[in-house]
Amino acid sequence: MKRLWYAVIFLCVTAVLCVGEQRYVECFYDDMNTCITAAESAVKNKNREEYKKATAEIEKLWRDKNDLLYATGEHSALDGIAVLVRSMPYDENEEIKELHSLRAQLFSYYQNEKISLSNIF
Questions:
Q1: Residues 6 or more apart from 20 whose CB is under 8 A from it?
Q2: Of 41, 30, 49, nearest to 96 (Cα)?
Q3: Burial of 28 (C-beta count, 10 Å sphere; 0-12/13-18/19+)
Q4: 120 or 31: whose pLDDT is higher?
Q5: Mean pLDDT, rounded, for 39-50
Q6: Is residue 121 scored above 70 in pLDDT?
Q7: CA-CA distance, 9 to 3, in Å (whole number)?
Q8: Which residues contact 57 (CB under 8 A, 6 or more apart)?
Q9: Interatomic CA distance for residues 104 and 2, integer angstroms
């Protein structure tokens, strides 16, 4: 009977960790998406100062969150995001293209980390 209780506790802890990880990834994705949108609008408005602030915010968010993301997520997807973030700020004619690429990488990572039947089986 004791082993059954250990199994139940283990399953509860696993469920809580899974939900926590999902929430962490979702918040990371939302925050990065907001920063990328701010950077894109700064580029469209030709505001270099706002663009630099937005890219600095993206880099800071990445530095703050990447350790836990690497501990729980798929490394190959995170490596692509890391390359794009670490090469900021982008060249003047390539900003929008690179920001779109970063957004696509983030979306791909977010979709692959979601708990769904297609990701489990």
A1: none
A2: 41
A3: buried
A4: 31
A5: 91
A6: no
A7: 10
A8: 35, 38
A9: 48
Contact present, 29 and 102 (Cβ < 8 Å): no
Q: Which two tokens stand for residue 80?
A: 């692509």
CA distance 10 to 41: 47
User: Given 3-state DSSP classes, what are the helix, strand and coil percentages for the chain, each rounded to the nearest 5?
Assistant: 85, 0, 15
Q: Which amino acid is at 62?
A: W
| pLDDT (0 to 100) of residue 11 | 93
pLDDT of residue 64: 94
Separation between Cα atoms, residue 25 and residue 114, nearest integer Å: 9
Place of tokens 């894109």: 40
- Give 101's contacts (C-beta < 8 A, 6+ positions apart): 84
pLDDT of residue 119: 66
Question: Residue 47 has what DSSP assignment?
Answer: -
* pTM, two decimal places: 0.85
Cα distance between residue 54 and residue 28, in whole Å: 15
